[in-house]
């Protein structure tokens, strides 16, 4: 028996021993096409020679220097790389080791910003139901997924949750996308008024909802309205791009497609593409300046901040993506994937919706298509699809998001940016076979 304490104590997992491009290989030599990049992580696949060489080189020169004594070259270069390409106004980067840490840093930066400005009462957060922001206590409190939160309550942060932008289920018949977005903006405004605008610190959202709903983008104009409302009340906008960022939707930052700039942006997963653990919070100039001109010290820190090897890996990943023109490839592969999914599952009785952007695509499984009825949550269908797919040699990311208390079954596809067309076909064929096994 393995002595690894695993999250799922009732299931055994195969032992991964190798990777080759978009494939993972287990100890028995079985190959799995990684159609979800683990959890939207491995955007360059599993054996990129340039990234491996950059990691080797950095470990050989300097693996680690504590951030309270030094910066390092890869840390400085990665910060420059990101700020040069980030939406205007984001002027510095706080490095951490993953997505939850990036969200925690964003929450504490927001809080400290208002303390430095003499508005300590601004500590209330507004986030959205059906969102995931991580598993540390602050990030867990921010996420709206009831079943993840329940057993750990009371959580430490004051958060209220408003509706996500989820057109497939919540846009009313006959309602235009604009009217639907406006309805959500009105709900947000009402929540701010209920709390008192002077008490609200930040609104937190994923530009494209990942881990709870499976690649759900907002309707056009929604985020611009959110930005206006935040500005009107002096509330910070925090966009969590941990899953949807770093090129996954076809632009480096997903919010570029919404035409808004946030005050704080969290990134992780695709940043280091799994070659090293790394995350970051991009910070707007006004927040940096308020802290620099105030106490001059951000009350937060972790031992591995700006880890030299992790920064070198991320820099190599991002330079490789740019040098090979892979963001354009994400757009064309994403269209190819959507077309194939629609051709194969467009009339499927249990596929209610196929959606997403770039190489970030989701399928929503329903018991009854016209009524959009979710499957009985006790069936844990999403988990069964994941297991069937593993048998077929395919990795897809399953999720049972809460739909106002009911569970819904979603399958997220977030494959590496290096696929070829035959591998797109392989994803759809194996997913089809997996659904057939589970649903018949
Ligand atoms: N935010 C979002 C949007 C995420 O999808 C995730 C991870 N699924 C996190 C935060 C947390 O990241 P990590 O698991 O690296 O802590």
Automatic annotation (TrEMBL):
Cofactor: pyridoxal 5'-phosphate
Keywords of this entry: Aminotransferase, Pyridoxal phosphate, Transferase
Pfam families found in the cross-reference section: Aminotran_3 (PF00202)
Annotated GO MF terms: transaminase activity
Domain of life: Bacteria
NCBIfam families to which the protein is assigned, alphabetical: PRK07483.1
This protein's name: Aspartate aminotransferase family protein
Species: Halomonas marinisediminis
Upper lineage: Bacteria, Pseudomonadati, Pseudomonadota, Gammaproteobacteria, Oceanospirillales
